[in-house]
Specification:
Blueprint lengths: L1 E4 L2 E4 L3 H14 L11 H8 L3 H13 L3 E3 L5 E3 L19 E2 L14 H13 L11 H13 L7 E4 L2 H12 L5 E6 L3 H9 L3 E8 L2 E2 L1 H9 L4 E5 L12 H12 L5 E5 L19 E7 L1 H4 L6 E5 L1 H13 L6 H13 L4 H21 L11 E5 L3 H10 L2 E2 L1 E2 L10 E5 L5 H15 L9
Parallel strand pairs: 5-15, 7-8, 7-10, 10-11, 11-12
Antiparallel strand pairs: 1-2, 3-4, 6-13, 8-9, 12-13, 14-17, 16-17
């Protein structure tokens, strides 16, 4: 049996078949974001199945982040379904300067060849086999020392394939589909996609230059949010950093909600020059994550995760049933690079700071407000994202539209400054000023 929806025919007799039919159409673009799906009873009648079968299919699609349901308003394809992802950027045309990708400056990344060659020789002599400890002992020792120096509470440690993998594993260790999660708004686009893909609900928490606002967090937790994800430093996209005063205020809110699952992401460690003010340890269950992607390269899919014993034990247990462990070869490579001082953190942080501040100052000279206390990005509030991005592209600059990173906050654009040169800064600032406030009578491109 089948049901025709626009140009697409939903098919299937079982819940899994119906869900797969809808998901295929979303992935291929035949069902567009925002497309309203038929009422369950109507679809059940057309397919000749029990309404409970369609209800199970829709539940599967919700849990997979493909559709969303709003009570009597029905079910529809999510604006950013998990099959697409909001971080997929269009190709940058030839001749256009790409400041949209969010990548680190390749010139500031360390050479991998020496460390990989040395570690490969070690692994030839002493290969890692099944049953070995999943965490490289020296990596654990060095990571613990760095965490302690930053004031992160002591706890068991494991390794994941990056910070997003860590967040997913921690969320799944404690939450069930439908649970609300407090997230920074604006915030990292992939996190905003991950949460509904897990069947969870996002609750936006407003962010300023000092991190999540305490009043916004209080409202989110009082409304029922069961978890909170916070970026400690180098917030993407705004460059916010949790200050000492803000950390105190956030801890006070969390103390009143001790059952909140707290996940802190310190992905900027190694390329930042502002101190860490962790929140970890205030709530019963917590996790603190550090990725090496920004300092050592995005293809080194490795992050350290510490937390309370229950959380880390659940993450380890689930890992054992899946990938088993993160490659010890990669772990040894990171250890060698740490030991060799392959990344000059202060030098890298200073380089990114100089590029951010130069652009922010140039924008201020044009009367344009911008944000970026830390990291590789500058956030510029704009009245119209589409118009600003389009005009900048016309002028030869590709930037990221803020819609990829926000839920309820006003429009903005994200500019990645990691490779921006001093010579480019002035022309870029002038182009942004024109895009944000075009001259009277000027026709928008």
């Amino acid at each position: 049996m089948l049901f025709v929806l626009g140009e697409y025919r939903i098919e299937g007799r079982g819940a899994a078949e119906i869900a797969a039919s809808v998901e295929r159409a979303v992935g291929s673009g035949e069902l567009a974001p925002g497309q309203l799906l038929p009422p369950m009873r109507e679809l059940a009648s057309a397919l000749g199945v029990n309404p409970n079968t369609v209800a199970a299919a829709y539940r599967t699609l919700r849990e997979r982040g493909v559709i969303e349901t709003a009570g009597r308003r029905g079910s529809r394809v999510r604006p950013k379904p998990a099959t697409t992802g909001r971080d997929q950027l269009p190709d940058v045309p030839a001749g256009v300067r790409d400041l949209s990708s969010g990548n680190p400056d390749p010139a500031l990344l360390p050479a991998l060849a020496p460390a990989l060659a040395a570690v490969a020789a070690e692994c030839d002599r002493d290969p890692v086999l099944y049953g070995a400890d999943p965490v490289e002992p020296e990596l654990e020792r060095m990571a613990r020392a760095e965490l302690a120096a930053g004031g992160v509470p002591d706890g068991p440690l494991t390794v994941t394939s990056g910070s997003l993998d860590a967040a997913e594993r921690v969320l799944l260790a404690h939450l069930k589909p439908g649970d609300p999660v407090a997230v920074e708004d604006p915030g990292w686009g992939r996190t905003l996609d991950l949460i509904p893909a897990l069947g969870l609900r996002t609750v936006p928490v407003a962010v300023d230059d000092e991190g999540p606002r305490a009043d916004a967090l209080r409202r989110a937790l009082e409304s029922g949010a069961r978890a909170l994800i916070v970026t400690a430093r180098a917030h993407n996209p705004t460059g916010a950093v949790v200050s000492a005063a803000r950390a105190r205020a956030l801890r006070a809110v969390l103390r009143a909600h001790p059952h909140t699952l707290l996940i802190e992401d310190d992905h900027g460690h190694g390329i930042v020059d502002l101190p860490l003010h962790p929140l970890a340890g205030v709530t019963r269950h917590w996790a603190f994550v550090r990725s090496v992607a920004k300092a050592y390269g995005p293809d080194l899919r490795l992050a350290t995760l510490t937390g309370d014993e229950v959380t880390v034990d659940r993450v380890r247990g689930r890992q054992r049933l899946g990938p088993g462990w993160v490659s010890r070869l990669l772990q040894r490579t990171v250890v060698r690079m740490w030991a060799d001082g392959a990344v000059n953190g202060p030098e890298v942080a200073a380089a990114y700071r100089a590029r951010r501040e130069l652009l922010i100052d140039a924008l201020a000279d044009h009367g344009v407000q911008a944000h970026g206390r830390c990291g590789m990005n500058v956030w510029v509030p704009v009245p119209d994202e589409t118009a600003a991005v389009s005009r900048l592209l016309h002028e030869g600059w590709a930037v990221a539209p803020g819609a990829r990173y926000r839920l309820a906050t006003p429009p903005g654009i994200r500019i990645t400054v990691s490779t921006l040169t001093p010579e480019e800064t002035g022309p870029l600032a002038e182009a942004v000023a024109t895009a944000v406030r075009p001259a009277k009578g000027r026709v928008q491109a």
